[in-house]
Amino acid sequence: MSRALANRLTPYMFMAPAVVIMTMALLYPLMYMVWGSFRDWNPSQTIGEAEFVGLKNYITLWNDPNFHESLGVTLRFAFFVVGFEMLIGVGLALLLDRNIRGMSVLRTLFILPMMIAPVVVGLMWRYMYHPTVGTFNRFLDDVGLPKVDWLGQHALGSIIIADIWQWTPFIFILSLAALQSLPRSALEAARIDGATAWQQIIHIKLPLMMPVLIVTCLLRLIDAFKVLEVILVMTEGGPGLSTEILALRISRTATEFRELGVAAAMSNYLLVLLLAFTVAMFAFTSLQEKRAARIRAAVEEDE
Amino acid sequence: MSTKYEKQNPAFYVLIAILVFMSIGPVLLMFMNSFKLDVDIISGTSGLLFLPTIQNYEKALCDVLWYEPDHVDFCSLKFGGAFINSLFIALISTFLTLVIGCMAAYALVRFRFMGRDTASLTTLMVRMVPPAVLLVPVFGLWNNEFCLDKEGLVGGFIRDTFGGRGDVCLAGTHSGIILIYVAMNLPFVIWILQSFIVQVPRSLEEAARVDGAGPFQVFFKVVLPLIKPGLAAAAIFTFRIAWNEYLLASALSDRNTKTVPILIVNNMSEFNVEWGVIMATGMLLAIPPIIFTLFASRQIITGMTAGAVKG
Questions:
Q1: Distance between CA atoms of residues A180 and B300, nearest Å
Q2: Least confident of A156-160, B87-91, B162-166, B215-219
Q3: Does residue B114 form part of some domain?
Q4: To the nearest 10°, the Cα dihedral for A123, A234, A245, A254?
Q5: pTM here?
Q6: Alpha-carbon distance A186 to A188, whole Å?
Q7: Chain A contact for B2, CB < 8 A?
């Protein structure tokens, strides 16, 4: 083999293992799923043995009020979780962006919740929400307030609180990193011009952080659609269907009801939804990047 | 260090204290409860005054203990075996993901070749696929299609050697779970390692080339040592996901290959919850990630920012 040919082949040799694995365990399964969603398919059949039913699975889902219910739960969950986490996380970052002793220790303590298994987070909170032995109701009892039915009537809210506990630090850390990499000159210039702390945040810090914030928001949004274990452990989707998010419904349909075709169609709906979010967010990012670049340029001109 | 610390308002420190308490409070609560008897957890007689006991841990680990604790009559919770499965699956899949991901990231950064843009874009896209979406096809494929025919040479050999009557399928094996974890983590690892490899000076690689090193030698001897921080960050994230994952593991494992998260969920859904034992198993599952966090928080933060800012 000539040297030139060997050199041409090198990149393919480096790529090959990754391409093989990702094709075998991601791309092929995804195509397989699309294919399976048109079939009346159960787990004991290969896809070839399953009967072709066209769009039946999609139509069944479209007319199924329970599916709409869990779609609604999923969207509500994602919306509130991401909204609150962004507000609290960015707010804390703006507040704590100072030179203080022990900041690295603090950051370590803050990222701890993120590293713990969702299953464990679920059981921790299920204990704290327990109607009689749980921490919260005991506390309410001690101060003489009425107990709250955390995982009953308010289950979705309680789950949202647990997720906020676990993932706000993610946004906090990323916003803090973004804040600390802002051009010092821009902030200095604004201070000399007599801008108040609030004006600095609104007109300089936030617009310059925006590209990072949008990506952070997107990552959290995608993750919010992946949450499953916490809910499974805390409420198992109940009471009723009030916390049965789409991911949980997919796994139920596939493993409990053994309707792989319907579950595949449901997964496709979810995938399209995520794709739409991603595209929208990327479009928005490029817009905000241009704005941030304009602000940077304006500041540099000032000097 | 020469950085000057500004003096802060006392209210500021109060805020920080509250945040720290909120952040690690639940973990500490679980830690304490894992040393309490169920009677103490349920009666709730004062949070801090109790006689610590390791009974819960003994009960959880009963199948790997070298002695027989007298309060355990029947070892129903096979935690030890699941723990070993978890460890095996997480370590192997982390190692494979790193090697394969690193090579791919290197090719994407350093070479121009046909199909490069497609590969890069696909990697970016599959990063958002949630495990729940993978569940259905992987469940179907691993159970029915990725099988070795029992009449065939290899399948027959495996069946005769390890027992079993039907075809040999990926479902229910360690390899089946490892394969899906490697695939799931690859996009993320390729993505963050790219941002580290870009920073390796080209001149170093060229110098090695001039000295007669082949492309693989350059990669393993020059590039890999220089991106150690990136590798550490990637390793922690991959390990965390493989260690914590529940959904795919529960669909793909059988009695002998199940991991700790499955064990915890199975015990939670039983009618009578033994809080003490559950908390102890939870704590055992949480310990490796907690240790990682304490020792490598700098790498974790670097990895998080590289993953997000470059995304």
A1: 17
A2: B162-166
A3: yes
A4: 80
A5: 0.88
A6: 5
A7: no
B41 touches chain A (CB under 8 A): yes
Per-residue pLDDT, averaged over B109-132, amounts to: 85
Is the backbone peptide bond immediately before A239 cis, with ω within 30 degrees of 0?
A: yes
Contact B285 A106 (CB under 8 A): no
Q: Which residue has the higher pLDDT, B158 or A41?
A: A41
CATH code of the domain made up of A65-302: 1.10.3720.10
β-pair partners for A52 = A39
> Does B1 score more than 50 pLDDT?
no
Residue reference for tokens 């969920």: B265
User: Which of A5, A8, A22 has the highest number of chain B CBs within 10 A, making it the mutation to test binding with B?
Assistant: A22
pLDDT of residue B271: 53
A234 to chain B, closest Cα gap in Å: 9
Structure confidence at residue B183 (pLDDT): 93
Residues 12-51 of A with CB under 8 A from B: 12, 14-15, 17-19, 21-22, 24-30, 32-33, 36, 41, 43-47
pLDDT tens digits along B239-250: 989 999 998 988
CATH of the domain at B224: 1.10.3720.10
Question: What's the pLDDT at A163?
Answer: 93
In a domain, B287, yes or no: yes
Q: What are the residues facing B168 on neighbouring strands?
A: B148
Segments making up each domain of chain A, as ranges: 65-302
Would you state the structure tokens that stand for residue A77, as one six-digit string? 């969950």
Please report the residues numbered 263 through 292 in chain B whose beta carbons come closer than 8 angstroms to any beta carbon of chain A.
Answer: 264-265, 268-269, 275, 278-279, 282, 285-286, 289-290, 292
Inter-residue contact B109 to B226 (CB < 8 Å): no
- Neighboring chain B residues of A104 at a CB cutoff of 8 Å: 297-298
Domain that holds residue B158: 79-308
Q: Which two tokens stand for residue A193?
A: 């011009």
Measured between alpha carbons, how far is A208 from A214 in angstroms, rounded to an integer? 11
What is the domain count for chain B? 1
Give CA–CA dist A90/A126, Å, rounded: 28
CB neighbour list of residue B172: distance below 8 Å, 6 or more residues apart: B252, B253, B254, B256, B257
Position B44 in a domain: no
Using CB atoms within 10 A of its CB, is residue A283 exposed (0-12), middle (13-18) or buried (19+)?
exposed
- Tell me what pLDDT residue B5 has: 66
A-chain CB neighbours of B173 within 8 Å are: none
The pLDDT of residue A138 is: 83
Task: Report how far Cα A237 is from the mean position of its chain's Cα atoms.
Answer: 19
The residues, ordered by sequence, that sit 6+ positions from B165 with a Cβ below 8 Å of its Cβ are B150, B159
User: Is A3 near chain B, with CB under 8 Å?
Assistant: no
Nearest to B191 by CA among B117, B108, B110: B108
- Which residues, given as ranges, of chain A have pLDDT below 50? none
Euclidean distance between CA atoms B167 and A248, whole angstroms: 30
Residue B138 is assigned to a structural domain of this protein: yes
Interface of A with B in 58-97 (CB under 8 A): 92, 95-96
B27: contact with A, CB 8 A cutoff: yes
